[in-house]
Amino acid sequence: MTPQTVAFNTLGCKLNFSETSTIGRQFAKAGYTEIPFDEPADVYVINTCSVTDFADKKCRQTVRRALKTAPDAFVIVTGCYAQLKPGEIADIPGVDMVLGAGEKFKILDYLDDLKKLPGQALVHAGKISAVNTFENAFSFGSRTRSFLKVQDGCSYKCTFCTIPQARGASRSDTIESIVQNAQEIAQLGAQEIILTGVNIGDFGNGTEVIEGIRPQKEALFIDLIRALDQVEGISRYRISSIEPNLLTQEIIEFVAQSRRFMPHFHIPLQSGNNRILQKMKRRYKRELFAERVQLIKNKMPHACIGVDVIVGFPGETEADFKDTYRFIQDLDVSYLHVFTYSERPNTPAYEMAGVVPMDVRRARNKMLRILSEKKRAAFYRKFEGQEMEVLVEASKKDGVVTGFTKNYIKVELAEEDAQVNDLKRIKLGSFSGEVSMPATVLTPV
Question: Whole-prediction pTM value?
Answer without folding.
Answer: 0.91
